[in-house]
């Protein structure tokens, strides 16, 4: 009884790992949020697919564990990396101490990596990744993390910057950062990473505050050393200074 928890990266086959591809080909059943299963279905059309809608993460994980207990090889797919805002932790919680179902976590390219590559090299030095979704984390805690990351002069990557239910969260986050950082701090936004319609642009932190982002955007805020080199966003680590 085998259950893979697979990070499929941005969603295109070229950015999926060989290990992920091998596990999906071995699987009888692929489980996931329908947006993510739709990304892999054309590549693996002969598999059984089980899906749920958004906010039903626990149901998805229970479904995957139960299918594995039937003797199937099952893959739970997640966008990006399966252990970074993914289902890996919840799969272990749902399975509990019963190790009759073997769980194998297969990492994938998280948006910080794949989006950073689109912009250039914004994460060459220490950085923080913070989700602006307050569905599972209190906003007061998110505020503290934003403030502390800015105080520490970390490059910052923001996931889930906006949604219909949270239209002003990116602006609120920028207001917190502007309390610490200069308004001309270099920032970047990548939309639809690795998918049709991919785009990116650079801007200042002040401009980012009013940017029309959505849930398909990943936001990058540079540290004090981050600069524009040509059309790219680059954070030096200091190799040329040693």
Name of the CATH homologous superfamily of the largest domain: Tetrapyrrole methylase, C-terminal domain
Termini separation comes to 52 Å
Structural class: alpha/beta
Please give the count of helices.
Answer: 8
Instruction: Describe the largest sheet.
Output: 5 strands, parallel
Kindly report the average pLDDT value.
96
Count of distinct structural domains: 2
Q: What is the C-level CATH assignment of the largest domain?
A: Alpha Beta
Rounded to the nearest angstrom, the radius of gyration is 19 Å
Number of strands: 13
* Spatial strand sequence of the major β-sheet: 3-2-4-1-5
Beta-strand residue fraction = 25-35%
Question: What are the defining features of this structure?
Answer:
elongated; alpha/beta; Methyltransferase, Cobalt-precorrin-4 Transmethylase, Domain 2; five-stranded parallel sheet; 242 residues; 2 domains; five-stranded mixed sheet; Cobalt-precorrin-4 Transmethylase, domain 1; 31% helix
């Amino acid at each position: 009884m085998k259950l893979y928890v697979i990070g499929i990266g941005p969603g295109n086959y070229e950015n999926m790992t060989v290990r992920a591809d091998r596990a999906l080909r071995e699987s009888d059943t692929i489980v996931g949020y329908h947006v993510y299963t739709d990304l892999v279905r054309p590549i693996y059309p002969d598999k059984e697919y089980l899906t749920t809608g958004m906010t039903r993460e626990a149901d998805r994980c229970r479904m995957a564990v139960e299918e594995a207990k039937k003797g199937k090889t099952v893959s739970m797919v997640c966008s990006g990396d399966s252990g970074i805002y993914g289902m890996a932790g919840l799969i272990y919680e749902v399975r509990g101490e019963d190790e009759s179902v073997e769980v194998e976590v297969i990492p994938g390219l998280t948006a910080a990596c794949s989006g950073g590559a689109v912009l250039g090299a914004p994460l060459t030095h220490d950085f923080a990744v913070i989700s602006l979704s307050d569905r599972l984390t209190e906003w007061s805690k998110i505020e503290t993390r934003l403030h502390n990351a800015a105080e520490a002069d970390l490059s910052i990557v923001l996931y889930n910057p906006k949604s219909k239910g949270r239209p002003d969260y990116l602006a609120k986050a920028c207001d917190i950062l502007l309390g610490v950082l200069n308004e001309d701090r270099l920032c970047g936004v990548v939309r639809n990473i690795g998918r049709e319609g991919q785009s990116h642009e650079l801007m200042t932190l002040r401009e980012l505050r009013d940017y029309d982002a959505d849930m398909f955007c990943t936001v990058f805020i540079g540290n004090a050393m981050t600069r524009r080199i040509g059309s790219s966003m680059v954070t030096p680590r200091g190799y040329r200074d040693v």
